[in-house]
Amino acid sequence: xxxxxxxxxxxxxxxxxxxxxxxxxxxxxxxxxxxxxxxxxxxxxxxxxxxxxxxxxxxxxxxxxxxxxxxxxxxxxxxxxxxxxxxxxxxxxxxxxxxxxxxxxxxxxxxxxxxxxxxxxxxxxxxxxxxxxxxxxxxxxxxxxxxxxxxxxxxxxxxxxxxxxxxxxxxxxxxxxxxxxxxxxxxxxxxxxxxxxxxxxxxxxxxxxxxxxxxxxxxxxxxxxxxxxxxxxxxxxxxxxxxxxxxxxxxxxxxxxxxxxxxxxxxxxxxxxxxxxxxxxxxxxxxxxxxxxxxxxxxxxxxxxxxxxxx
Length: 311
Ligand code: PRT
Ligand code: ZN
Prior knowledge:
By secondary structure, the protein is an alpha/beta fold.
């Protein structure tokens, strides 16, 4: 155990200080829950960011000190987060990749966080004449993402007019403001209900961890602790613990299907000729592996969520 670290944690536990890692997160909106949930899963306690937590604290720039980790949370509008991190007001931030790309500030993206997933897409009226991005030459595209869209169109050598609007982009074609839109999509229901269809995804996005490029070694030390926790949480989410019974003559084949963290654990069962096998499966391979396990004689398969995964 690192004693200095424990000392630092205790010293910083009640009052904000220069040594704390300052993190910017969205004050309210689509990334708020995911950000709070991730910190919680990392064992970091934070009070509800929607409420002022200390008497007399100005609303609009809420700061909350964690009682059990040397971190201070700034609750901000997501659009402002890259700039606050660039200017070292916050050391790190949780924000959508789409915002990082659009704001184009001097910050480093060091980790994808696995929530807030969406895509920035070009969409056109469902029953219109436009069918592909090549049809957009000379047309008007409404978007809140002019920087990313300009970059995309330049790369594709398409000359179109960009009309920047800050909200309700999806209604632009219907009211004659634009021929097409470029907007964030997650379920696709907004496009559907506005009779629009996606013709191109120009950016796949999710919440990411951004860092001030000039972060001090002391803060980097705390950041590394946080990153270690975030990676353990993410890894656990991408894997499942699997427990099954297998006939001994099939153990070799079954173990090949289950690489585990090192190799599967095999324990003899009371019933002769059978063993219990414990291992870890990646979420992406999950159903495929389960089918093969069953086909090779595995029985009583239990799949258990993993809370943290430390290697
Ligand atoms: O107040 P503040 O400025 O902080 O918040 P905001 O209103 O600018 O942002 P917010 O909370 O809407 O989104 C924050 C971040 O969430 C975005 O920057 C993305 O990184 C991420 N995200 C994930 C999304 C979506 N999914 C999403 N579906 N952001 C917006 N949308 C919108 C989209 O613009 C469209 O209007 O949802 C609609 C489409 O959704 P579907 O499900 O109908 O396809
Ligand atoms: Zn915003």
